[in-house]
Design brief:
The complex is a heterodimer of chains A (about 575) and B (about 170). Chain A has about 575 residues and is α+β, with helices and mostly antiparallel strands. Chain A contains 18 helices and 21 strands. Chain B contains six helices and nine strands; from the N terminus they run βββββααββαβαβαα. In chain B, the strands form two sheets. Chain B has a seven-stranded parallel β-sheet with strand order 1-9-8-7-6-5-2. A two-stranded antiparallel sheet of chain B has the order 3-4. The chains are: A alpha+beta (about 575), B alpha/beta (about 170). The interface of A and B includes residues 25, 165, 166, 282 and 295 of A.
């Protein structure tokens, strides 16, 4: 993981002090809400339905056990409100689709103390909200995936630093999200971002980026077009500066819903890219500080050195799956099947022989998808220390991943994870759903997503059934802001508001851009929305249709593509009771 | 950073009852709109403007690069924040300083709030006219939280990774 220098450390402390000053001026009446709001947003404080929500930055998903323990402490000591019963109001965090962590119950007058506490473990909420460059996300298997071309993490870190408090880009027309992939498989959904970066090597073996600009979800889902086929890595900061500068100048500011860069790119087309190219050239040839932002080899080396595999991992020969399955203790009667399933779904191959990446599933009955209580965070930190060299990743699917697990430790880890409720063998299956916090927490939401997620989790409890269904990306958003990424789900659910009550639109055939799912594309709506009490039935009907109609070995998304939405729509319409087809 | 007191400020617009005068005459500390400047820039002789400081008040969608040939004649460029959350003037200032090498005063006008100051300072503004309700003491304090930043800016073009270690460490 990146190791903070004294400069980095002083920086986050200075930021916390600046925020404390702003908060005090606000509480004293000097800084009215309209002046305080953008400032607190750019430190992650987002006033929500019940209380201020804090979004803590977890840069490209990388988290240490020490950091996770502090997050647990924040959940336990600060994430409390006097409203309602203590058990219901606080004490947990929610891992998001952009690899961050959200708290929902911290009172605003304690927020400066929380920022100081975060700074003590090299953490912050800088630019996790606001019309600025947000957390740079990546593949949670960065540095460990067998299909990796180039480790994206050093570049993510350099980009993170460059974008942090960039003075020109603090008040863009709208938020700006960047994702980076370094592998053949895109596990970071890069084409769905304002800027998507794909690390590649050219014919000469030099590292560079394919740059995509102008993707996004929301009301108008757009897959980012290619801006440049190859930007040498040294130039990437300068190129992105050019792209964002043109956006700052020309992005729409008259209409909040038309202000993202995807709208500008769609409207201007090639003219946008030509303008960026011209700006890029001028930056390098004319500007006082253009060429200064070419990344020196020494800086890349300095940052990359932090991302070497942790010391203390001895190489060992890779074990076969059969050998792993047979590494059981006597007396564990249902263990063979359960352990086998967990190996199959939650354990992934690793770049280094003798190691695996293991996902701790945060998708189980009793807690909303992606949530973890303070006790569970501490437990995950302990597992990281014991099994993964103190390191975890937050995944785009709202789980936690342990990236450095020895094969010899897999059974012990499984037993420990089971005890803590992290071992549901459902990664990639229907109950490994993405869900935003929705109307229960979010003032923007049209509908609640958590009860929908809970009911579907309940209906598909049977692991045999889940395994039979196989890979299925179910994504749930409580509103069109799409924080639950419903557009890219094989099965998407979108909360809509009609006449003040909750309704749900179902989409099929979306893709995040991975090989499994096919090229990035938004799903298709399958007819009028469903009532809250029809949604789970509709989902079951759709999945049953798949199981009935699929060819041998065909995955859900493939059957949808082959048959089109008609048969699925018909099946879902059959279950309508109060809504018309 | 200079804080402009509107009561003491001598810069003035060439405006009549119906708005900006279409054909103003040269005067010291005269602030012109872009339209006025286009009307007079070829007509006003060196003699007529000798010793008179001229400035432009630009809207935040003006193309500052088009002003390149005129910059040596200008002492002041006033940029605008119609809403403090509209960040276009930061780009204008940065282009004026870092690309066009403008040496005169760049002033922030409009809705200018205390907490914008670190951004203004780092994008090339050297004068601000704060909104009337803003406190000067808070503005000055706002400039003191950070000794150094990651990116190069108009004060120091070098990002942290190009500064010697002694400078990279915050004071």
């Amino acid at each position: 993981m990146y190791r903070y220098t004294d400069f980095d450390r002083q920086f986050v402390h200075a930021r916390a002090a600046q925020y404390r000053d702003q908060l005090e001026r606000h509480l004293a009446g000097e800084l009215p809400d309209e002046a305080f709001r953008p400032l607190r947003l750019q430190n992650g404080w987002y006033v929500q339905r019940h209380a201020p929500m804090l979004r803590v930055a977890v840069p490209y998903g990388a988290l240490s056990s020490a950091q996770l323990r502090v997050l647990a402490r924040i959940a336990r000591e600060f994430d409390l409100q006097d409203a309602g019963t203590p058990q219901e109001r606080g004490g947990f965090g929610h891992f998001t689709t952009r690899q961050n962590l959200q708290f929902n119950w911290i009172p605003l007058d304690r927020s400066a103390d929380v920022m100081d506490l975060l700074a003590s473990v090299d953490m912050h909420g800088i630019q996790t909200s606001g019309n600025c460059i947000r957390n740079i996300t990546s593949d949670s298997l960065a540095g460990v995936a067998p299909d990796e071309i180039v480790d994206p993490r050093p570049y993510c870190e350099v980009l993170r630093q460059w974008s942090t408090l960039h003075p020109e880009f603090a008040f863009l027309p709208r938020k700006f999200k960047i994702a980076v992939s370094g592998a053949r498989e895109d596990r970071a959904a890069i084409r769905w971002h304002d800027i998507g970066l794909q690390l590649v090597k050219n014919a000469a073996g030099e590292v560079g980026f394919e740059v995509y600009v102008g993707g996004g979800m929301g009301r108008t889902p757009v897959i980012a077009p290619l801006a440049r086929a190859f930007v040498p890595w040294q130039q990437i900061l300068v190129y992105i500066e050019a792209a964002v500068r043109v956006y700052n100048r020309f992005g729409r500011r008259d209409n909040l819903y038309k202000a993202r860069i995807k709208i500008l790119v769609k409207a201007e087309g090639q003219r946008y890219f030509d303008e960026v190219d011209a700006e890029f050239d001028k930056l390098l040839s004319e500007d006082a500080n253009g060429a200064e932002h070419l990344i020196p080899q020494a800086e890349l080396d300095r940052v990359a050195a932090c991302f070497a595999p942790p010391a203390g991992l001895e190489p060992s020969p890779a074990a076969s799956q059969a050998a792993l399955r047979s590494s059981l203790r006597p007396g564990d009667t249902d263990a063979p099947v359960a352990f086998s399933r967990w190996l199959e779904r939650n354990v992934q191959p690793h770049r280094l022989p003798g190691l695996r990446a293991v996902t701790l599933s945060l998708k189980r009955p009793g807690l909303p998808p992606g949530d973890a209580t303070a006790a569970q965070m501490d437990a995950a930190a302990a597992l990281a220390d014991r099994f993964s060299q103190g390191e975890l990743r937050v995944t785009h699917e709202q789980n936690l991943l342990l990236p450095w697990v020895r094969e010899a430790d897999l059974h012990a880890l499984w037993l420990a994870a089971k005890t803590e409720g992290f071992a549901t063998p459902n990664i990639g299956l229907v109950t490994d759903m993405i869900a935003c916090p929705g109307g229960d927490f979010c003032a923007l939401a049209n509908a609640r997503s958590i009860p929908v997620a809970a009911e579907i989790t309940e209906r598909f409890q049977d692991l045999d059934l889940q395994h039979d269904i196989g890979d299925l990306d179910l994504h749930i958003s409580g509103c069109i802001n799409s924080c639950g990424h419903h557009h890219s789900g094989h099965l998407g659910i979108l909360g809509v508001d009609k006449d003040g009550t909750e309704w749900y639109q179902i989409t099929l055939g979306g893709s995040d851009g991975s090989t499994l799912s096919g090229a990035a594309t938004p799903g298709k709506v399958i007819g009028p929305s469903f009532a809250a009490d029809e949604v789970a039935d509709a989902v079951e009907a759709v999945i049953e249709t798949y199981r009935r109609e699929r060819s041998a070995g065909e995955r859900f998304v493939d059957t949808v593509r082959r048959l089109g939405v008609a048969p699925f729509r018909a099946a879902a319409d059959e279950v309508r009771q109060t809504t018309a087809a | 950073m200079k804080f402009i007191d509107p009561h003491q400020d001598r810069w003035h617009l060439a405006a009549g009852e119906d708005g900006p005068l279409p054909h103003p005459s040269p005067a010291d500390q005269l602030l012109l709109t872009l339209e006025q400047w286009h009307a007079v820039r070829s007509h006003w002789s060196e003699q007529a403007t000798a010793g008179k400081r001229l400035g432009l008040q630009l809207s935040n969608d003006a193309d500052v690069e088009a002003l390149k040939p005129d910059l040596p004649r200008l002492a002041l460029i006033a940029l605008s924040f119609p809403k403090w959350t509209d960040g276009r003037a930061y780009t204008q200032a940065r282009l004026l300083r870092a690309r066009l090498g403008f040496q005169g005063e760049i002033r922030a006008t409009g809705e200018v709030l205390v907490d914008m100051l670190p951004l203004l300072q780092r994008t090339g503004f050297d004068a601000v006219q704060l909104r009337a309700d803003q406190r000067l003491a808070s503005a000055e304090r706002a400039l003191r939280f950070f000794a150094a930043h990651y990116q190069g800016d108009t004060r120091d073009a070098r990002p942290v990774f190009r500064r010697p270690a002694a400078l990279a460490e915050a004071a």
